[in-house]
Amino acid sequence: MRAAFHTLGCKVNQYETEAMKEQFVRAGWEIAGEGETADVYVVNTCTVTQLADRKSRQYIRRARRLNPDAVVAVTGCYVQMNPEEAASLDGVEIVCGTDEKGAVLDQVQAYFRDHEPSVRVHPTRELTRYESQGEIQEMDGRARAFIKIQEGCGNFCSYCIIPYARGRIRSRAPEEVVREVRGLVDKGCREVVLTGINTAYYGRDLKTGGVGSLIRALNDLPGDFRIRLSSLEPTEIDAGAVKELLDYDRLCHHLHLALQSGSDRVLARMNRRYSMDDFRAIVDVLRSRDPLYGISTDLIVGFPGETEEDFQDSLRAVTASAFCKVHVFRYSPRAGTPAAGWKDQVPAELKKARSAELIQRAEEVSREFRRSCVGAVREVLTERTVADPISGEDQGIEGARTAGQPGPGGPAGRAGTVDPAGTAGQGDRQTFHTAGYTDNYIQTSLPGPLRGRTEILRVRLTGLTGEGMTGEAIE
Description:
Blueprint: E1 2-7, H1 11-26, E2 30-32, E3 40-45, H2 50-66, E4 71-76, H3 77-81, H4 83-88, E5 92-96, H5 104-114, E6 118-120, E7 144-151, H6 162-166, E8 170-171, H7 174-186, E9 191-196, H8 211-219, E10 226-229, H9 239-245, E11 254-256, H10 264-269, H11 276-289, E12 294-301, H12 308-321, E13 325-330, H13 348-372, E14 377-386, E15 416-418, E16 430-438, E17 443-447, E18 456-464, E19 469-473
Parallel strand pairs: 1-2, 1-3, 3-4, 4-5, 5-6, 7-9, 9-10, 11-12, 12-13, 17-19
Antiparallel strand pairs: 7-8, 14-16, 14-18, 15-16, 16-17, 18-19
Helix pairs in contact: 9-11, 12-13
């Protein structure tokens, strides 16, 4: 029997899909590619925007077209928020809410036995404890693994539906996280990315210490690996808490801090509960320890009531913070959230223009940040073979996908060429490079194709590419 999986949305969903895959494999199933014919299609959905809902429905219908006789199982946040709608979609036999992903396999097996559709979605208010899916053994063969440590969010930002889909804060037992990481490192994982719906909340319900105490336990494990935090919310941490994180030598010098707006007025309307002064204090602590500390962020343009001055505040925040990367989102009303019903919605054309201007500013700032890194020595996890160090095009040659998100890799070799067609001397030899990420989150290309086992290398950064840098390994 063959099962195919499709994941929409966040890194938490990616982890949960990997856990479901491993359950199926242990039960004797073969995993098919997303576009291949399978006996079961499992779609892990997202509901962060109306567009995410639409994409979720599209992929559910696509699964039915791939094999009209297949069983379609749907789970995730779209399902949690719209269980009846999900169950009514043509071909859907199994519907599981956000806390029932560990039961998908059982429901599939029950369907093959009894041929009875099932819907298992608990009201969000009843999601009160962390539901473990077990411990993953590998991350789809990669050297980078996402590790889910936490579930739920209690912030209730005025634009966000996620607290209604994921429920209250629940933390995973620290001993289970440590055991999972130890097993992955023993199998060659070189980077673990701690992720959750709101990782800054980790441990508060357990009363056994927060995310810092978990990192301390992981930092003490043996092995050649590093730790990365997927994101932290400025609503839940301050400069003092961030300063404590700088003491752990395995922790990558990169944080994703979701600013959302550079305007204190807009932040207050978003219910973000911090000011730009609070955010700047965090940035100052990080950059005082390492001037090249990588800081990425999310920014929303066109939030209801956003004035030109508010928008200019966001532009100034991007410049002042010297972000290594900025994800820009145009605000779109999300039904079920307070902001969706506000009367002072920003016109679509103005949101589009502001988005373009902010993206341009963000690209300029990112390039300046990378330019400041030229000549610096950073640690790079080599991940895959690429033909073009500017585009990072994955060539799919042997060894090119032995790594994580986006992939692991091995030691960089000398500059070399590959001649797949055996036509050397005819002017079409292709030069290959090894690509990976620095500890401060810069995509870096090294001379020569990926070779050997995955390693974390000390690399001198030598120049800029379109969205990354070039470098040379230091022996």
